[in-house]
């Protein structure tokens, strides 16, 4: 079974041990003991990392033994294996997975990718299909691109290296545009029109790179880091130190400002590295050597940051060195001119723009090819996309504008409080001016109403007096006429027989009476007409005064509305200012609280570590005590057992001695013959007694040693415990002291903040009181002055206001005329663009019609060809049938002839 499994793995070649171990190695690995404390990996020049076992440790020095038997010693060991480059991802290893199911091969990306990676390297249809392109067109565009020579386009053959470079440039361009497209889409998705607060945040920055071989990529990354580091030094540190100064912290100001300016200017300024690199890319005969010579001539010995590299053994060749803030970096300029040009294949880009994948087409929709640049007839010439260098796209303008924008934003943020205060003060001044204006207009209105009432009363009184005089005159005339009429009547009655002369006199008097009556009626009519004219004039003046009052009411309402709006704005600004102040104070307190919490967490972690150390020491002490007890028990058990054995031996000897004495008493006759035996037994007894004494002495010595050892171990452990307790007490007291110091610092910070807030509040109250007093005095003086000026300048102000309204109307008319002209010009431009679009649409429609006609002709040709193919197939079938019949006839005839 195992041999079959190992045989199946042989197809993977040298990759087999890294995909699956042999059956024997797996069984050995399962049965082999493993100790995580001693098993490590160490660096090895050939195998990168090999398994090892720790043999000994001496301080920071560790000695290990590898599986091959070699021994290494060093100051540290690597405990995690960072995988080296394994011989799996190559054509042979990938080919072994072809045609196999997932469960038939070891786990690897090849077993689940359906061989897409392997086939993608050899089959262009896959890549073309993913981009919704025709594979033949893609291969033709890569291998035989169209290049503009003069005013014509020719097809150019490419070498393998040129095709590789073109594919790499296209891949980088697609990745860059796709990344920017994704960022734009994410920002659009997260965008909201609701109110929000803007802030500056840095998510991540590129790491500084110093390798054995540093090229143009490392220079771009290090240049970015240099700019960001300068920005942080110049702004963030300065702002932090200003915060220290505001909070009253004793601090020596450190200026980090322009420490990195020399290196940045060396790279980005005119006649810098990027500038010389672009200049060399413009000349077709430029080489790496000419670029190096220009750099050295321009900067070597003139700039401290540009140095000549020191030759080092075993490292790649370096052409110049730059002194960055993170260290001195040696750069190799080989291939910089080609990397900086990084041209795109215009033919492939044209295919991308016509791709059926909308996303890919939109990525290159704004790309201006050489053909498009050549077709443009208007405007100044622009540098074609085929000559847009990496350094030009990467660095100077964008980074400079970005840093300028950040500087401007920081300046705006630092001046935000002052601007808010100025806006608040300006709003208060405007509100005061509007209030003064409203008061002035109200007073003017009341005075105008008083003047109108006085004038109206005077006119009415004059009219009434005139009417009274007229009525009195008419009454007087009427009474005179009545008296004359009565006198005439009386005289007429008295002279009853009046003569004709008297009759004539009466007629004459009657005529005079009629004339007087007519004059009276005419005077009455004239008086009524005068009264009507006066009433009409009075009504007109009342209407005009009513209109003026209405206008004044509207102006007053408008001013009241503006006043309420200004009050609302003032309230909003006040609330915003208070919110900003509260937020700033809250942020400061939160920062201090967070710092205190961080310190407390650190102290707590340290205390927990000390507690863990104490627990570890307690465990070690208990373990040592248990070991001592075990050894003591063992020694006591051994001593008791040995004593019991000796006691038993002693008893046996005593019994033997007693038996011997009895035997001697019983057989006195045999005393002489047994003298030698007795002597021997006595010698044995003496030897045994000596052994017993030596054993007792050894036991006593062991007991003494045991007591000394127990005493020493107890003293040692007690001393260790005392030291540990002393250290713990010291650590605890230190922690308590630090916590008390932090609490005092927090209380001091709170008291400082409270004092600052109280001081600011008192200052603000004093300023508000003084400002209110000044406003009252100013209002009173301005009111008196306005009252004096209104009486003198009312007519002039009305005339000036009319003139100003006329001028404003003229200005508004001019602005309207300008807007109208702009709208007309914009409409004309839109009409021109519409005409251009219509012409393009007509051209495209004509091309579509031609393509449709070509497609129809092709379809007709295909149908004709299919019909001809069908006819040919039928003829072939007919011929085949005829041949078959003739062959069968001939065969039958041959068989008949043979039979006959």
Automatic annotation (TrEMBL):
Say if the entry is tagged with keyword Transmembrane.
no
Q: Which GO terms describe its molecular function?
A: actin filament binding; ATP binding; calmodulin binding; microfilament motor activity
Q: Where is this region: Disordered?
A: 468-502
Which portions of the chain have biased composition (kind: Basic and acidic residues)? 468-495
Keyword annotations for this protein, in alphabetical order, are:
Actin-binding, ATP-binding, Coiled coil, Motor protein, Muscle protein, Myosin, Nucleotide-binding, Thick filament
Query: Cellular component per GO?
Result: myosin filament; myosin II complex; sarcomere
Identify the InterPro entries for this entry: Kinesin_motor_dom_sf, Myosin_head_motor_dom-like, Myosin_S1_N, Myosin_tail, P-loop_NTPase, SH3_Myosin, XRCC4-like_C
Q: Boundaries of each Myosin motor domain copy?
A: 1-395
GO terms for biological process, alphabetical:
adult heart development; cardiac muscle contraction; muscle filament sliding; sarcomere organization
Q: Which residues form the Myosin N-terminal SH3-like domain?
A: 35-90
| Family statement | Belongs to the TRAFAC class myosin-kinesin ATPase superfamily. Myosin family.
Q: What is this protein called?
A: Myosin-8
């Amino acid at each position: 079974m195992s041999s079959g499994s190992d045989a199946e793995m042989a197809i993977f070649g040298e990759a087999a041990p890294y995909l699956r171990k042999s059956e024997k190695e797996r069984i050995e690995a399962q049965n082999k003991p493993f100790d995580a404390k001693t098993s490590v990996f160490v660096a090895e020049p050939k195998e990168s990392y090999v398994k090892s076992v720790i043999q000994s440790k001496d301080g920071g020095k560790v000695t290990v033994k590898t599986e091959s038997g070699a021994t290494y010693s060093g100051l540290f060991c690597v405990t995690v294996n960072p995988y080296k480059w394994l011989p799996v991802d190559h054509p042979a290893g990938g080919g072994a997975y072809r045609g196999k199911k997932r469960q038939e091969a070891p786990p690897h990306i090849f077993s689940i990718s359906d061989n897409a990676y392997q086939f993608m390297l050899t089959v262009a249809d896959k890549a073309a299909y993913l981009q919704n392109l025709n594979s033949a067109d893609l291969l033709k565009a890569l291998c035989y691109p169209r290049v503009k020579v003069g005013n014509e386009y020719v097809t150019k053959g490419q070498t393998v290296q040129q095709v590789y470079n073109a594919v790499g440039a296209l891949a980088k361009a697609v990745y860059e545009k796709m990344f920017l497209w994704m960022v734009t889409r994410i920002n659009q998705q997260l965008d909201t029109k609701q109110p929000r607060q803007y802030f500056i945040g840095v998510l991540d920055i590129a790491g500084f790179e110093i390798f054995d071989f540093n090229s143009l990529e490392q220079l771009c990354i290090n240049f970015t880091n240099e700019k960001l580091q300068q920005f942080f030094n110049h702004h963030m540190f300065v702002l932090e130190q200003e915060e220290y100064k505001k909070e009253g912290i004793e601090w020596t100001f450190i200026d980090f400002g322009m420490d990195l300016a020399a290196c940045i200017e060396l790279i980005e300024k005119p006649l810098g590295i990027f500038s010389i690199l672009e200049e060399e890319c413009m000349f077709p005969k430029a080489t790496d050597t000419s670029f190096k010579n220009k750099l050295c001539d321009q900067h070597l010995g003139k700039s401290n940051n540009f140095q000549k590299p020191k030759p080092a053994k075993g490292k790649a060749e370096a052409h110049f060195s730059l002194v960055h803030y993170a260290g001195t970096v040696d750069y190799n300029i080989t291939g910089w001119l080609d990397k900086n040009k990084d041209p795109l294949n215009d033919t492939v880009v044209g295919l991308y723009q016509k791709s059926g994948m909308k996303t890919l087409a939109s990525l290159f929709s704004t790309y201006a090819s050489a053909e498009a640049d050549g077709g443009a007839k208007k405007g100044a010439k622009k540098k074609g996309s085929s000559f847009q260098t990496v350094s030009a796209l990467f660095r100077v303008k964008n980074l400079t504008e970005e840093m300028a924008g950040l500087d401007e934003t920081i300046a705006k943020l630092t001046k935000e409080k002052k601007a808010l205060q100025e806006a608040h003060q300006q709003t208060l001044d405007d509100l005061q001016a509007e209030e003064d204006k409203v008061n002035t207009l109200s007073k003017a209105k009341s005075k105008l109403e008083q003047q109108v009432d006085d004038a109206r009363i005077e006119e009415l009184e004059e009219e009434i007096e005139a009417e009274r005089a007229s009525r009195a005159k008419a009454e007087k005339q009427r009474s005179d006429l009545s008296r004359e009429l009565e006198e005439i009547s009386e005289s007429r009655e008295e002279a009853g027989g009046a003569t004709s002369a008297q009759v004539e006199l009466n007629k004459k008097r009657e005529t005079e009476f009629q004339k007087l009556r007519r004059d009276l009626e005419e005077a009455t009519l004239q008086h009524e007409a005068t009264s009507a004219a006066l009433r009409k004039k009075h009504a007109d003046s009342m209407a005009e005064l009513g209109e003026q009052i209405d206008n004044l009411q509207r102006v007053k309402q408008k001013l009241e509305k503006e006043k309420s709006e200004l009050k609302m704005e003032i309230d909003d600004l006040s609330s915003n200012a208070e919110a900003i102040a509260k937020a700033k104070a809250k942020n400061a307190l939160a920062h201090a609280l967070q710092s205190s919490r961080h310190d407390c967490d650190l102290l707590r972690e340290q205390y927990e570590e000390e507690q863990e150390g104490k627990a570890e020491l307690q465990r070690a002490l208990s373990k040592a005590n248990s070991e001592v007890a075990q050894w003591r028990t063992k020694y006591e058990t051994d001593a008791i057992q040995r004593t019991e054995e000796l006691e038993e031996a002693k008893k046996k000897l005593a019994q033997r001695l007693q038996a011997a004495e009895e035997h001697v008493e019983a057989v006195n006759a045999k005393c002489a013959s047994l003298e030698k035996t007795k002597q021997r037994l006595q010698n044995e007894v003496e030897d045994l007694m000596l052994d017993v004494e030596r054993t007792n002495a050894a036991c006593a010595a062991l007991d003494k040693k045991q007591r000394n050892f127990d005493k020493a171990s107890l003293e040692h452990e007690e001393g260790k415990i005392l030291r540990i307790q002393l250290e713990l007490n010291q650590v605890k007291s230190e922690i308590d002291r630090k916590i008390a110091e932090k609490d005092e610092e927090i209380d001091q910070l709170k008291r400082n903040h409270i004092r600052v807030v109280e001081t600011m509040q008192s200052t603000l109250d004093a300023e508000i009181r003084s400002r209110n007093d000044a406003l009252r005095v100013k209002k009173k003086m301005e009111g008196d002055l306005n009252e004096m000026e209104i009486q003198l300048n009312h007519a002039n102000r009305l005339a000036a206001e009319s003139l100003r309204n006329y001028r404003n109307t003229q200005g508004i008319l001019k602005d309207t005329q300008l807007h109208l002209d702009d709208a007309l010009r914009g409409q004309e431009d839109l009409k021109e663009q519409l005409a251009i679009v219509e012409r393009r649409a007509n051209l495209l429609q004509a091309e579509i019609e031609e393509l449709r006609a070509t497609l129809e002709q092709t379809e007709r040709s295909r149908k004709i060809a299919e019909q001809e193919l069908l006819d040919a197939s039928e003829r072939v079938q007919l011929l085949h049938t005829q041949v078959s019949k003739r062959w069968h006839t001939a065969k039958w005839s041959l068989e008949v002839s043979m039979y006959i």
